[in-house]
Amino acid sequence: MSITPQRTPNPNALKFGVGVDVGGPRSYVAANAADDPVAHELLRIDGVTAVFMTADFVTVSKAPEGDWSAIAPLVQTALELRYPNA
């Protein structure tokens, strides 16, 4: 299964199914991102403001002025490296 973004009702959030258990539910912002290496890496991407992890998916939120065409491929690559069996 490849990791691909899925739209959510919130235009500033995308859901990425990773196909493996990521634990959770856990939410991260820059202030607590050091608690999880995946969240830390995702929050380093310019425009990402929050990460929610639960079950077999990760939801990434962006700033309203952020551009999904720039952010989503970086998130996808980061998740593919962290979850290579997805």
Task: Write up this protein.
It is a single chain. By secondary structure, the protein is of the alpha+beta class. It is 26% helix and 33% strand. It contains two helices and five strands. The longest helix is centred in the C-terminal third of the chain and has 15 residues, at 68-82.
> Biggest sheet, open or closed, and with what strands and sense?
5 strands, antiparallel
Order of helices and strands: EEEHEEH
Instruction: Please work out how many helical segments DSSP would assign.
Output: 2
Gross geometry: globular
Task: Tell me briefly what this model is.
This protein is 26% helix and 33% strand. The chain is α+β, with helices and mostly antiparallel strands. A five-stranded antiparallel beta sheet has the order 1-2-5-4-3, with helices on one face.
Using brief descriptors, characterize the structure shown.
86 residues; five-stranded antiparallel beta sheet; alpha+beta; globular
Q: How are the SSEs placed, and which strands pair?
A:
Elements: E1 5-7, E2 13-17, E3 23-28, H1 37-43, E4 48-55, E5 57-62, H2 68-82
